[in-house]
Structure formats: C-alpha cells, structure tokens
C-alpha cells in the first residue's frame, strides 16, 4: 500500500484508510477493465469485418467461375454450330475434399 494512496483517508482511521485504498484500487481496476474491453471489442469488430469481406470475395469468385464455365460452354456450342474447330472444353475443377481447408498454412 502506498502512503499517497491512503493519505486522504487517514483522518478516518485505519478502517477509513483501507476503505479509501480499496475504493481507489477498484476505480483503477475498472478503468483498466474498460480499456481492455474496448480493445477486445475493436478487435472483434475488425475480425467480423474481415470475415464478411472474405465471404463476399468467395461468393464473387464462385459467381465468376460459374460465368466462365457458362461462357466457355456457349463458345463451344457456337463454334460447333458454325462448323469451326471446337475448342476443347476445360475439365471442371475437382470437388474439394470434405474437411479440406485451403487457407491453413
């Protein structure tokens, strides 16, 4: 216990000094807790925003893959209709194995 922490409370006797110290310590701990909670909430918001952006990017890539497959099929069909040498269709990507997680290092 630091004397500066309890000096304003000494006039109240030993119990008052201890009470004053506990009150000041409680206030200090609450401030620290509030600051830590603010940092945790900020980190959580950043993580949620990053997860949301990642989900949108994955959906966009999936949509683009579908469009590319459709357009490739259409080009193949039109080349065949026009009697042109058809381009070989690319093989579709293999399905991801269950439990396969590409983003792990």
From TrEMBL:
<feature type="compositionally biased region" description="Pro residues">
    <location>
        <begin position="87"/>
        <end position="96"/>
    </location>
</feature>
<feature type="region of interest" description="Disordered">
    <location>
        <begin position="84"/>
        <end position="105"/>
    </location>
</feature>
<protein>
    <submittedName>
        <fullName>Uncharacterized protein</fullName>
    </submittedName>
</protein>
